[in-house]
């Protein structure tokens, strides 16, 4: 692949295997439109230039016939990285989790235990019940993102114990989310997984890790991702979040499990053809973009420190709880709800002389309080966070009336 | 001919088609956004363009034809409803019973004739009344155009209307599995919108002869698509910057439809050639689009035996009904390949007949 000086008006010309590819010129209008600092999620990440070139050049085949070499390579790499036998590319994390749960709960009458604040419970539309036809029972998520082990122990209904009791479902699977989104991007540590594995030893119960943001956890702990999931029978990782691929996730597990999941995936409509075009950027996501996540974590802490300095303006944040790329903060204001704040923030403002629009999302947490969530990603730079903090302060300081909730 | 010199002629399916250079360029340059937030401009444009071409209000990009069909079932049907479709339907044969296993609907079959048509009288007799506690109500009727297992036969607007009217009269909706709808439009020389004007929604594949790498588009009313979007997310079809896939789709809709006529000509030539081979049976006049299903006489062997022998000779086909095999033409097979394929098939079949006589 050659890179040469561009023709006038273009930023780069790349000569690839399939012909000439012109990358997009920098739009002249950039100076005249406001800069968007989008912290709604890490799913908003757009593919990098390298990923775009990879898509252009990807070797492809019909993956339903098992003939796409690029997706086969991605699946193998993901499995190896996570210490599992085989992998399966899926359209989304939701599909990965659903296919995993359906593949584990293969017999009628089985149930899954998951955290009451977990993504599979809150944000997957109850697919477990609607589509998978199995029961999803919740266990309290503790503030650190783990499942309350004592409560979990009390709720276990292993087949060996309840098979003779036709009142009871049989616990087949426990889902652990790492990092835990709603608890604040919290990292689940290997020591916890050891205790969980010990608790269920010999009971015929398996573990699935919803590792949508597993690489954030691995980065925060400075450990190889395989270490975090060594007790897991299966894992879903998202390529389209902080890793920034355009779409997709990978499910990994034993070869037998994956062959079953492949069948489930097909029935869900997830059997795609020349999907190497998505797998090629996925490989870059897995190998390269997984190495830069510490930047997002540092940006999150930078944002967090700035927010903590506004506690006199009603910002409520425990900086210790910011472990990865997600920041949840509360607003103790009688004059403004979190939704108001987010709406105000999204209006165009000025920071450091630049026109900016800052985006975050309101989120109802376990207590019922609606907080504000910011998710750092590769589009949000140090300067972006600076501008965001300026805008936040401006909004919180300029609103008239009482600054803190009146205490009686 | 040695194995190294032999090029493989792949007639297994039009799904094997690779994206064109123009598609690759479009994909890598695509403007994208998060489609779950409705912010991917390439997807929005594709969905709009697709719905315009098919004369419907709105569209939805999905990962596959199977997903589009499943989403349609999830949108129209409640658990315990009945869906009526032809007994040769892809949705019945090759979609892992998803509409039943996942959407909770029972499937009732009515006969497809050789041309993929459903007799409106058969449909009428099969429709269940509502309000009877014993019976699952018929909420959906599914048509397929072109018809895969019926050798790619195309349904005319009149065929479609006759069946759709019966369905609508009974309060059922009509979904068309139009995986290869553009093949039908080209073969019949009818605008695609004309073919689907009497159905409530239609799905078509980008990844088949249109040659995109991935995907399907479901088009229907605003209300239908709004709900369909929800069920698509539930089954895991909510992709993010999938504008990279939509960009290829936009290229396909502009540049890959007219050329389908070449695939049809190749399929017709294949059928003519196969008809001339002793031991094989096919009616070339019945071949309207890019699929040729031909019968194997017992003197040649079983279909699996013949499939293997053909594969060994560098001609790849797929199984179909008992004692038949299927060939599908597409842009990666040209007229020279067709002649070569026929020559090899004649050789293989001749040899098998010889062996069986002995």
UniProtKB/TrEMBL annotation, chain A:
Record carries keyword DNA-binding: no
Residues that bear N6-(pyridoxal phosphate)lysine: 241
GO cellular component, one term: cytosol
GO molecular function: L-allo-threonine aldolase activity
GO BP terms: glycine biosynthetic process; L-threonine catabolic process
Keywords per UniProt: Lyase, Pyridoxal phosphate
Organism encoding this protein: Geodia barretti (Barrett's horny sponge)
Keyword Lyase appears in the UniProt entry: yes
Cofactor(s) of this protein: pyridoxal 5'-phosphate
Taxonomic path: Eukaryota, Metazoa, Porifera, Demospongiae, Heteroscleromorpha
Protein name, as recorded: Probable low-specificity L-threonine aldolase 1
Domain Aromatic amino acid beta-eliminating lyase/threonine aldolase: 38-327
TrEMBL record, chain B:
InterPro entries assigned to the protein according to its UniProt record, in alphabetical order: ArAA_b-elim_lyase/Thr_aldolase (IPR001597), Low_specificity_L-TA-like (IPR023603), PyrdxlP-dep_Trfase (IPR015424), PyrdxlP-dep_Trfase_major (IPR015421), PyrdxlP-dep_Trfase_small (IPR015422)
GO molecular function: L-allo-threonine aldolase activity
Record SUPFAM superfamilies: PLP-dependent transferases (SSF53383)
Keywords: Lyase, Pyridoxal phosphate
GO annotation, cellular component aspect: cytosol
Cofactor: pyridoxal 5'-phosphate
A Pfam family recorded for this sequence: Beta_elim_lyase
Domain of life of the source: Eukaryota
Domain Aromatic amino acid beta-eliminating lyase/threonine aldolase intervals: 10-295
One GO process term, biological-process aspect: glycine biosynthetic process
Residues recorded as bearing N6-(pyridoxal phosphate)lysine in the entry: 208
Family: Belongs to the threonine aldolase family.
Protein name: Probable low-specificity L-threonine aldolase 2
């Amino acid at each position: 692949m050659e890179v040469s000086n561009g023709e006038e008006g273009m930023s780069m010309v790349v000569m690839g295997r399939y012909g000439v590819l012109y990358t997009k010129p920098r739009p002249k209008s950039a100076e005249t439109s406001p800069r968007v600092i989008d912290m709604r999620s890490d799913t908003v990440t757009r593919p990098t230039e390298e990923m775009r070139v990879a898509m252009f050049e990807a070797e492809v085949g019909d993956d339903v016939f098992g003939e796409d070499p690029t997706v086969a390579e991605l699946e193998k790499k993901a499995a190896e990285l996570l210490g599992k036998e085989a992998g399966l590319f899926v359209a989304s994390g939701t599909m990965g989790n659903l296919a995993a749960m359906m593949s584990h709960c293969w017999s009628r009458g089985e149930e899954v235990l998951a955290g009451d604040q977990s993504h599979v419970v809150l944000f997957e539309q109850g697919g477990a019940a609607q589509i998978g036809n199995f029961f999803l029972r919740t266990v309290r998520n503790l503030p650190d993102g783990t499942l309350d082990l004592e409560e979990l122990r009390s709720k276990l209904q292993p087949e060996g114990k309840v098979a003779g009791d036709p009142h009871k479902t049989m616990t087949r699977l426990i889902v652990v989310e790492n990092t835990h989104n709603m608890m604040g991007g919290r990292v689940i540590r290997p020591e916890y997984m050891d205790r969980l594995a010990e608790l269920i030893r010999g009971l015929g119960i398996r573990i699935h890790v919803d590792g949508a943001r597993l690489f954030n956890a691995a980065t925060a702990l400075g450990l190889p991702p395989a270490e975090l999931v060594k007790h897991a029978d299966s894992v879903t990782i998202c390529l389209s979040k902080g890793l920034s691929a355009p779409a997709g996730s990978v499910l990994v597990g034993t070869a037998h499990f994956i062959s079953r999941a492949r069948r489930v995936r097909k029935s869900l409509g997830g059997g795609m053809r020349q999907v190497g075009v998505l797998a090629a950027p996925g490989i870059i996501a897995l190998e390269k973009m997984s190495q830069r996540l510490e930047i997002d974590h540092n940006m999150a802490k930078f944002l967090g420190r700035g927010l903590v300095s506004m506690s006199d303006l009603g910002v409520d944040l425990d900086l210790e709880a910011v472990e990865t790329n997600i920041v949840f903060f509360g607003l103790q204001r009688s004059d403004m709800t979190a939704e108001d704040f987010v709406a105000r923030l999204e209006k165009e403002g000025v920071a450091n002389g630049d026109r900016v629009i800052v985006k975050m999302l309101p989120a109802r947490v376990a207590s019922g309080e609606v907080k504000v969530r910011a998710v750092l990603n590769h589009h949000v730079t140090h300067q972006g966070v600076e501008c965001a903090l300026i805008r936040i302060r401006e909004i919180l300081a300029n609103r008239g009336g009482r600054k803190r909730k009146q205490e009686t | 001919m040695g194995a190294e010199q032999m090029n493989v002629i792949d007639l297994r399916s039009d799904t094997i088609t690779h994206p064109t250079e123009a598609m690759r360029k479009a994909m890598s340059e695509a403007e994208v956004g998060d489609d779950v937030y409705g912010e991917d401009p390439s997807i929005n444009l594709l969905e709009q363009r697709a719905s315009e071409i098919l004369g419907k209000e709105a569209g939805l990009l999905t990962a596959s034809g199977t997903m589009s069909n499943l989403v349609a079932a999830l949108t129209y049907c409640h658990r315990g409803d009945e869906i009526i479709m032809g007994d040769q339907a892809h949705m019945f044969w090759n979609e892992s019973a998803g509409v039943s296993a996942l959407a909770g609907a029972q499937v009732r079959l009515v006969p497809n004739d050789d041309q993929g048509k459903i007799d409106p009288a058969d449909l009428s007799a099969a429709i269940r009344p509502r309000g009877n506690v014993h019976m699952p109500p018929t909420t959906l009727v599914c048509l397929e155009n072109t018809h895969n297992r019926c050798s790619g036969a195309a349904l005319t607007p009149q065929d479609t209307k006759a069946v759709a009217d019966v369905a609508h009269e009974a309060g059922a909706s009509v979904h068309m599995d139009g995986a290869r709808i553009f093949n039908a439009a080209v073969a019949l020389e009818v605008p695609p919108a004309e073919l689907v004007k009497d159905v409530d929604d239609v799905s078509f594949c980008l990844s088949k002869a249109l040659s995109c790498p991935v995907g399907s588009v479901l088009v229907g009313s605003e209300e239908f698509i709004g709900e369909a979007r929800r069920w698509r997310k539930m089954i895991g079809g909510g992709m993010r910057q999938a504008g990279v896939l939509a960009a290829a789709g936009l290229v396909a809709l502009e540049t890959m439809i007219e050329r389908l006529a070449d695939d049809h000509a190749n399929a017709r030539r294949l059928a003519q050639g196969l008809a001339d081979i002793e031991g094989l049976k096919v009616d070339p006049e019945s071949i309207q689009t890019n699929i040729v299903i031909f019968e194997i006489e017992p003197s040649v062997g079983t279909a699996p035996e013949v499939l293997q022998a053909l594969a060994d000779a560098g001609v790849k086909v797929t199984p179909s009904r008992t004692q038949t095999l299927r060939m599908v033409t597409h842009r990666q097979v040209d007229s020279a390949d067709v002649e070569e394929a026929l020559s090899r098939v004649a050789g293989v079949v001749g040899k098998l007949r010889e062996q069986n006589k002995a």
